[in-house]
Amino acid sequence: MSLDAFPELSSAVRGWDRLRRPVWMFDPVSLRGVYANAAALTLWGAETLEELLARDFSNLSPAVRARTDRLRAATAGGNEVDERWTFYPNGRPVTVQATISTVQMDDGRGVLLFEAAPLDVEAEELRAVEALRHTSTLITLLDGAGALLFSNPAAYAAYGDGERPLAARFVDPDRAAWFLEQARTGQAVSQLCEVETGAGRRWHDVDARPVSDPVTGAAGVLLNEQDVTARVEAEGAQASAEQKTAMAEARQTFLTDMSHELRTPLNAVIGFSGLLSGAGLTAAQGEQARRIHEAGQRLLKVVNQMIDLSEQGDDPVPAPMAAPDAAKPVERAPDAVPGPDDKPPLRVLCVDDNQTNRMLMTAMLAGQGMVCETADDGALGLAAAAAGDWDVVLMDIQMPVMDGVESARRIRALGGEAGAVPIIAVTANTLAEQVESYAEAGMDDLVAKPVNMAELLGKVAHWGGCGWREALAGQPSEVEPLPADR
What we know:
By secondary structure, the protein is of the alpha/beta class. It has helices at about 40-45, 50-55, 60-75, 125-135, 155-160, 175-185, 230-275, 285-310, 355-365, 380-385, 405-410, 415-420, 430-440, 455-465, 470-475; strands at about 25, 30-35, 80-85, 95-105, 110-120, 140-145, 150, 190-195, 200-210, 220-225, 345-350, 370-375, 390-395, 425, 445-450.
């Protein structure tokens, strides 16, 4: 083999060609061979130097690449490194003890010079060393003071050559002293830690345990680290989603309770003041009733604004039920219910757990010649609906024993006329998702509390006189047929 093809090599280097020890040069940047003597060609299983230099070494494992980078950095200042290496020429493992240094070429390149001596290594030891080098676990051996003695390729890739102190690895630097102290007292400990690596901040499960340095016998510390960043981030995302769900549920509960507790008494204030204003009071009494009514309307406007602001961010529902208009001023009811004079009075079942609300509804409907009976909760309302002959059911939502949604669902399950009766939700709970649940339970319409008297009477008259019984029986009717989306 001639070195004429390598004029950049000094004359002293030419003596390597006569050595029996394998010597070769490797460019850690291009990942190509540069030179090999005859013994090295035999070690690598190559017939000629040209054949060896034509081989592509770019497909290195991450562990070997990290180890090569470490050698390049460790020998750049003229130092030598003695290490055991296992190579795989043509797929055959060869283990050597190598002295590695950096040689500067005339063109400015720094290439690694390997001077190797073959070793006979026990199979178990060889496999253990290879597993240590290729494992994804970060393994670091420290002396009792925390100075670096050894790091496998995974640890080197994460933390570098060990020039930084151990405390610099941890976002909380006190973790380093804690691990060392526990190991000194003979304790094996583990902890989830946030660490600073070459790839940025990561989460590692760090295990620290006391060991003896196999070279000197002195007490040392072994760190084993597993990167669990993906798991920690997934758990964090799940916790965040659960927290958002809990906050949304708490917000929903708050809005529902606030709506019910504020709008229910306002329903009585505005409703009864509206009735009083047309009850033949003296001028002074009428003025007082009017002022109460106006004050209730102003307070209702503030309540509606508070709830609307709290509800911002909810997705609007293209709900099949009529949208509530709770802020609309109360109007005086018409003098008579629309419809032919010879029709019998409409029979209305009012289901509400609040006595004042039941009294108000009865007064409003009776004033228009309607018959109104009441039930105190959803269960009693279900029983009354099953037993009575009703034209319309007015259903509160938030009630004890059985709420209005469940009561409506069970009324629909009755079948026949009892199960087909129009049901109007009368409630202060008018958030979009709540309105959708009323429609899903089989309710036909909605009147928001505080009740607008004209709206209530108009909807009762419409649903009670829409000919739903005739439509149910398949009979023709001169009255407007039941809407198809009911």
